[in-house]
Amino acid sequence: MASKKTNKTHLSWNDPAFRAIVYQIAVLGIVAYVAWYLVSNTMHNLSIRNITTGFDFLDREAGFAIGESSIAYTPADTYKRAILVGIVNTLQVSALGIILSTLLGSIIGVARLSTNWLVARMATVYIEAIRNVPLLIQLFFWYALITENLPGPRQALNPVGGVFLSNRGLKFPALQGDSLSWILYGLLLAVLCTFAVYHGSRKRQEKTGKTFPVFRAGLFMLLVFPFIAYFLGGASLALDYPVLRGFNFTGGLSISPELSALLAGLVIYTSAFVAEIVRSGIQSIGKGQWEAASSIGLGKTRVLRLVILPQALRVMIPPMTSTYLNLTKNSSLAVAIGYPDIVSVVNTTLNQTGQAIEGVLIIMAAYLTVSLSISVFMNWYNRHIALVER
C-alpha cells in the first residue's frame, strides 16, 4: 500500500504555508489595532465634550411629527417608534420600486429587441437617456413636476369617480370594515397555497410527466378564499371616498407628492438598468433555441415566455440582485425631496438628541439588514433555478 503524504507546516520562513499564516495574523492585528484606535479616540473625544453615548434615548418621547406613516404614530411616541416608521417607509418604497421597475424594465428590454424599428429605437433612447442622468436630478424633476404643475385640491383632476389628482398627491377610495383584515388573510393564504401547488405540480411532472393547471387553480383560490373570508369577517366592508373639506381632501387613501416623485424616479431610473439586463440575458441564449422552439409550432411570444426567458433567468439573476440592492440604497435620496424614510427620521432624531454616532449606526444597520436579506433571497432563488447535472 502506498503511504499517505502529509503536508506539514514547518516553522521556517521558506515554508509558504508558514508565511501565509504569519501574513494573516499580521493583517488581523493591524485591522484590530485600527479598530481599537478609532473606537478609543471617538470615545475620548465624546467624553471631553460631555456627550453621552448609548441607545437609551430611543425610549424618550420623539416630539416631532412624521408626514407619512404606514403604521400608527404620534409625536408622543418614542424615538424607537419614529425610527420604526422610517424603516417601514423605506421597505415600502423599496418593495414597490423593485416590483414596478422589474415589470417596466422587462417590457423595455424586450422592446429593444423588437423587429419593429421604431419600437426598438424608442426603447434604446429611453435606456440611454435615463441611465445617463443622475438619479437625484430626476427626483427633483418629478417632484417639481408634481407639486408645481398640478392644480390645487379645489381644482383637482378627477379622471375617474372618487379619484382626485392634485399637488397634494393622489387620492382614491379605500376599503374599510371588519372584513378587511379577514380578506387580506384570505389573500395571503391563497398565495401560499398557490406556491405549494406549484411546487407539488413540478415534482409530479418530474416523476410522471403529467402537468397540472396551476394558473387556473391559483386564480380560483385567489378569488374564492377572500370571498369566504369576507363572510367569516361578518360581511362588513365599504368604500371610503375622499371628500374635499376646506383646503384638502379627507377620507380614502392618498399617495403623497413625495412618495409619488420618489417612486417615479426610482422606478424609471432602475428600469433602464433592468432593461439592459433583460436584453443581455435574452441575447445570451443561442439562436438554435429559437429555431428549435419555432420548429414545433410555437409562436414568438410563447417561445419567449416558455423557452427563452426561463433559460435567460439564470444569466439575469446575479446582475439583477445588484440592481435591486442599488435601488434599495438609492431610496436614501428620499431625504432630498422630503419623504420620511429611515435617513430623514434618524436625521431629525440625531439633530434633537445629539446622538450622531448612534444614529448613523442605526441607518447603517437598517440598510445592511435589508440588503443582506435581498441578497440571501436572490441567491436562494438563483440556486433554485440553476441547472442540476445528473
Automatic annotation (TrEMBL):
It comes from the Bacteria. One of its GO terms (molecular function) is transmembrane transporter activity. CDD domains: TM_PBP2 (cd06261). It is found in: Cell inner membrane; Cell membrane. Pfam families: BPD_transp_1. The chain crosses the membrane at residues 21-39, 83-111, 123-145, 180-198, 219-239, 259-278, 360-381. Belongs to the binding-protein-dependent transport system permease family. HisMQ subfamily. This is ABC transporter permease. It comes from Advenella faeciporci.
